[in-house]
Input
Amino acid sequence: QLQLTESRGVSGQIGGILTLSCAASGHLSAYYCMGWFRESQGGEREGVATISTAGARQYYADSVNGRFTISRDNVKDILYLQINGLKPDDAGVYFCAATPWQRGTTCPRPSEMIWKKADVTWGQGTQVTVSS
Output
C-alpha cells in the first residue's frame, strides 16, 4: 500500500522561492504517475503539475507554467515541487498524489479526471503561506 507524506508547511515572501517534498513509502513510486494539487481557501482542489514515472515528462496548469517545476527522485522515492516568483495566489494547502501507471498510456495531465478516481493515493497536505 503506497503512502505519501508531504514535508512540513512552509512560508515565503512574494517573489521568493519555495520547495515542497513528498516522500513515498510502502511501494515503489516508480510505478506511479505523480502530481501536485492545491486547495486555496474556500476553493476546489486543482491540479498544478504532474510528472511521468521516470520523470522525463512534466505537465503544468496554465496558471503556474513557467514558475513551478515538478521533479522526482525514484531512488529516494521523493517527489518535489519548486515554486519560483511566489505570488499571493500560490498560498493554500498542497497535496501530492499518485496514480498507478497504465501500460501503453501516458501519465495524466493535472486537469484530467483520472485524478478524481478512487484509486488515487493522496498525501495529508501541507500549508504554503505567502507574505509580503
